[in-house]
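This part of the workshop introduces the protein records we will be handling. An example says more than a description, so a record of this kind follows:
>
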Amino acid sequence: MSKMPYVTDLANVRRFNEGIGSLATKTGGNANFCLLSGPVGLGKTEAIIQRSSRDGHPLIRAKRAWNIRWMLSELSEALGLAPAYRTQDLYVQVRDRLIAQKPVVYIDELDHVISNKDLIETLRDLSDETGAKIVLIGMEGVRSRIAKYPVLDSRISVFIEFTELSEADVATVIQEALPPRTDEEHERDALRLAAKLTGGNFRRLADLIDKLDVQMRMGKMGHITLSLVREVANLKGL
């Protein structure tokens, strides 16, 4: 399978879109941050890629070695600008574009920079001066780390947490990715086993679906079966 379809009818994605919608329409005050968190492999990055692309809003990935200039430079480029040379000019450049465009800014891999007070303060300044909505995406447990920085913690008005996919979510993803059902009763058992084997982890599920797709094409099968899921699971060592 060349690419997994992006499935919007999942509990995590619905919760994410509701949270971003709430943030985007928020008016007044300076609590303009959103925190999206959750364990690895649950689809957080794919969700922000899809949403930011759909809305035409900037998305950047934090780097462990970021300093203020590097962060502002990437923000400038994401906003469609040619980064200025001096840090002060970069800041003004980004600030003015945020005021003009009023985008939602997505910053992935928050864990790389949460301990860098200078970067946190710069993001706070930008949000306070422009009213910009900023979505920070981090790993499970990042919320407790943010609590150590009241200047940021007090400005987060929307908290979104991604959790393991439910059995219904797993079934939805598989049915979107693989051929239509032809044997619903037997397929139900196959879907239930797929959910158990992947533990509700989207990344592991995507890998399983890719292997199922290969086997189904080789065997010219029209739908997944319990025996096929077991076979693929044994090949993968699940």
